[in-house]
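I'll show a sample.
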Amino acid sequence: MTAPEVRLWAVLRTSPASRKFRRQHPIGAYVLDFYCPAARLAIEVDGMAHDMGDNPARDAVRDDWLMGQGIATLRIPAREVMGNLDAVVRFICERCAFPLHQPLAGPPPHSANGED
């Protein structure tokens, strides 16, 4: 696991908001960084490499395949995990409160969605 993944796992393993998470969860040909079974949510911590070369296209194929399995993917920039862990965990827990068939109650917090 990368340093941001280790840091996030230290919190997710405590079951924040009474949600259970798994780390390095295998599904099909993929291994998810983290998975919340109750919310059917994959959490991927993306470092700089995810923006390079054909990685964005591969990530899109993976996310589409997971969605076909009924699993949404939440991508969190590694820099956000390192810089604002509390906001990232809150964002993940809020997202886990909404099943796939329900829309989020507004946009994600600026500090956890990777937009500048």
In short: The CA atoms of residues 10 and 106 lie 28 Å apart. Residues 102-108, 111-116 have pLDDT under 50 and may be disordered. The chain has one domain: 3-112. Strands lie at 22-27, 30-36, 41-46, 72-77.
